[in-house]
Amino acid sequence: KGTVGIRFTETMKGFWSKDQLSDYQKGYDSGKTESNPFEFTLTIQTDNVDQMVEDPKHQAEIVGSVIAPGLSPEPLMVAGGTFNLFVDYDAAFNTKRMNYALPMRSETGDRFFMEGYKQIDETDGPKLWPETSTLYITLFEGENNQGKEIGKGILHIEPMDFLKQMTTMKPVNASSVKEKLEATYKFGKFFAGSLWEVYGGILKKSEYFDPNAPARKKRPLRVGAPEVYPFTTADRVNLRLTRYQGGKKGPVICSHGLGVASSIFSTDLIDTNLLEYLYAHEYDVWLLDYRASIELPASKNQSSGDEIAKYDYPAAVETVQSITGAKDVQFVVHCFGSTTWSMSMLAGLQGVRSAVCSQVSTHIVAPTLTKIKSGLHIPGFLDKAGVDSLTAYVDSESNWINKLYDKILKVYPLPYEEWCNSPVCHRISFLYSLLYEHDKLNQELHDNLHELFGIANITALEHLAELVRKKHVVTMEGEDIYMPHPERMAIPIRFISGEKNDCFLPESTKETYDWLCEANGSELYSRKVIPGYGHIDCIFGDNAVEDVFPVILEHLEETN
User: Fold this and answer.
1) DSSP H or E run through 5
2) Nearest Cα residue to 469 out of 373, 402, 343, 394
């Protein structure tokens, strides 16, 4: 069996200067002032992706072209260049480099050489994007780096070019679709780190995917290139905001529920998702992945809603304000994201202009089965038994919790019309109650629910159970520190509930609406019940673009 390789095309642009031989940044600044650009488009290829990932000494081949008027009025050709992926640079500081070596030749036969590197600090998540997209270059006369040094500078990858780069990753010598997908994912995940999960064209997350599910390719989203902004909370948890700037409205931050991620707003499994809808209406959309997001390493740690309220939302708002210069932001918050956002507001969160709260906020009215599960303190029991999380991920492990799942799911009560053959769907219903009306989901999304749902830590589930028992927001320990301050939610808020929501009954938002109207006046608040919908199908239902999204947009427009 032959080896499988990978090929991709990369475009980088920047400036350099002949007057600066010791400082890259000064070379860039001088070159920009002098209008001395440097731009390349390179195709990088290796015939063995495994060696590329595992052996830093393995060199990929580079061919392409360079536009550098300061060297030649015509494009320079690159042939015989080399690329090394993640070479150890300083082990003590967990630093690696991507090394580039480009021999260049002009049409008149003049030869030049570019030596460049990207430097990656593996411990510094917040700087992942600028590090992956910044190349420091040194230029020489002649065929290699032994010639006369003639200048330094810096190149960058623009977000749109990086998005295109991800789509150019093609396997070489693959004999099957599976080999193609595995090779592309392996290299892309290693090359771009967590950015691959955002920008990559192939969707596969081993932490919570059903291993037996077929691989698939994502459709391109009808939005511009995303900008990824990792940020760190005051208690030193690394989170992520992903920006899609459709216009000057907003900015609007979208916050997901428990056991999922911001991908519920951007999934390609429906024809038009909420991200695309708001982007088309010229909103500056920010998808928030807080510490319970299944796409973040933080989701594997224990956390309560109190920590999300205290640390995650203030840091997210501050980050968006800092980057955009906006005085305040709008929010669209769903489920546990809505509950924890409400707790944060009641604890004094600043900088919020208006919000749409989906399905639940400060008050909890749960169906009988959820009350029973909470009353029996099932999450607390599992915690004492050593179970630190529950998951919708289906695997082949035979540990006792999976056996418990199997036994419970055989007798778990669901309406006849909501039964299906998906084990992932059954686990979702056990974990959270029935989250959607099956007739509101298209078949492709239902078949790929494993892409959208994953682990939920036991502490968060314990906190959620405590809220169900107390019927309103309290701390993890049951302290009533939030509800005494309804005046802190005196901003325009629209509450939406699915008419058939069997996770949090529609009366949940009704009680919050009535409570806030009495405290702060009815002119600030509105409430809509969506006929025929359940819980999360209000976010990714097949026809939510017509039935639900206009209700969200209407409030955002009125308060923009």
Assistant:
1) strand 5-17
2) 373
Angle between helices 368-375 and 458-470 (to 10 degrees): 110
Do 158 and 26 belong together in one domain? yes
Q: Of 424, 457, 490, which closes a domain?
A: 457
Q: In this predicted model, what pLDDT tens digit does every residue of 222-249 receive, in sequence order?
A: 988 888 888 999 999 999 999 999 999 9
103 in a structural domain: yes
Residue by residue, DSSP assigns 152-208 as EEEEE--HHHHHHHHHT-EEES--SHHHHHHHHHHHHHHHHTTHHHHH-SB---TTT
DSSP 311: I
Count of Cβ atoms closer than 10 Å to residue 46 Cβ: 23
pLDDT in tens, 172-219: 887 776 677 677 767 766 666 555 555 444 333 433 344 455 556 778
Same domain, 507 and 426: no
Q: Are 162 and 131 in contact (CB under 8 A)?
A: no
Residue 283 sits in a domain of what CATH number?
3.40.50.1820
- pTM score, two decimals? 0.67
Whole-Å CA distances, 321 to 133, 347, 552 = 23, 19, 22
Report the distance separating Cα 74 and Cα 69, nearest Å: 7
Q: Dig out the tokens for 379 from the structure.
A: 């999450």
Domain that holds residue 124: 5-166
Residues 349 and 374 in one domain: no
